[in-house]
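Support reply, case 0932

Customer input (verbatim):
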Amino acid sequence: MGRGISKSAVVVAYAFAAYTAASILGDTRTYTTAAARAALAASFGSNPGLNALIGMARQIETARGFTAWRTLGVLTIVGAIWALLAATKRFRGEEEGGRLEIFLSGQTTSGGAAANILAGLGVGLLIIYVMTFLAALVAGNFYKLHFGASESLFFSLALVASVAEFFAVGALASQIAATRRRAAGIAAAVFGAFFLLRAIGDAAPSVHWLTYLSPLGWNENLHALTGSSPIWLLPITGFVVLLCALAIYLAERRDLGASILPDSDTAKARVRFLNNPFDLGVRETRGSLAGRLAAIAALSMSTGAIAKTAGQALRESTGALKFFSTLSQSQRAAFGTNTYLGVVFLMVMTVIMGLAASSVGAMREDEAEGYLDHLLVRPVSRMRWLVGRLVIVVISVILAGLVAGIFTWLGAAIQHSGVSFSKMCEAGINSTLPAAVIIGLGILTFGIKPRWTSAVMYAVIGWSFLMELIGPAINLNHWVLDTSLFHHVALVPATATRWSTAWIYGAIGLVAAAIGAAVFNRRDLAGK
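Our regenerated output:
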């Protein structure tokens, strides 16, 4: 089991290590004087918008505080999302694909198999922990910040805590849900609830106690590199142990293929949306899409509600422009509420790219599981099925962008932030541009090398996100930065929309999808 998770864990470990080293390097190169560090602390030390997105800033006038704030705020979220997807794949995905049955045909019990999978996930966790520790120790001492071995170990432990927590969440969700897709949905909903608790608690000091109810808040309260509080390891450890024990207990007491919330073997026939492949695609995706749109709406409205306060803090800051110039071309925009919202929509772009990748991955899953065979034996052409599903993916992405824009405007309007409804809708549509390329690359890979479909899409998303965050901080060559899909997209409403990018990204996605569709129409179907 450890061998299966180790490949993806190494990729995540490299990303963690690179981002940690880049954060240390960016701090030492950007804030070289006491005045610059004081301006940084005045700009972001009490900004509620950034506190909600990244986490509470502590001692960011110091290199240790800035490194902890920047890395923990981003990597705990990235690690949690990867962990819940990896755990549901290893648990419910292996069971759903029939591969777990091979192990259970021997002397291995269901509980023993669950424990072995958790041990394998632990190997992946150890890989990430060790590589992050080495990066923090080497980079911290190379740039004369004098990171000791013990504080580097504790800092790395705080970074990977979210990975352990959501390994456990994913493991338990896999016992509750009957399919991997539903298990991932349950785990993602839990993550969203914990994130909102942490975000609200950090944004509003009067309800900071909400962070005590969220594992993501516990990770933050460890105060790595800024006066460590190891007492918070107790609830983290207890949470992980309890959920893992429950997962093993439930696995031991249920039948293979069963779940706590099982699918019914019989149901009243519902033939609506079964007239053609397009309608069938709508029926298959409407539930998950509705859940994702609801999550985007909730997140967008909550971030929009604090836009006015965050924008005011940015306008009063003398150091904010210098900080945000490492993320985008914000230095050419008027600072304030629009700048904060521009950064928010950078996060929205990532979410929508993930939605696009997941939707195209579901098309590949239908082929891998053999569901597509049942359609193609009837008078349904491959191109008709593919084009129908592709249209659904495109509509889903556009809806996600519009929902993000509308609910961000609604949250901002409640606080009388003065943002334009049309500009927010434009920002929402602008945030879908990178997803157009992801869809095209996904269909191209689906046609040429179907088993690599999800890996290629998520690799491009991860690379783009990593380059946008660490590239400017370490002064990477512009040719390298240009490989990031984010790099060419304006952060509307902070800057004007680049319509040339919209046309180029749209053309790339269309051409790639056309080539992939043509190849798919001629190749043999491929299983797992």
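We compared this against your earlier run and they match. Two observations from our side: The first helix runs from residue 2 to 30. DSSP finds 21 helices and no strands in the chain. Please reopen the case if you see a mismatch on your end.
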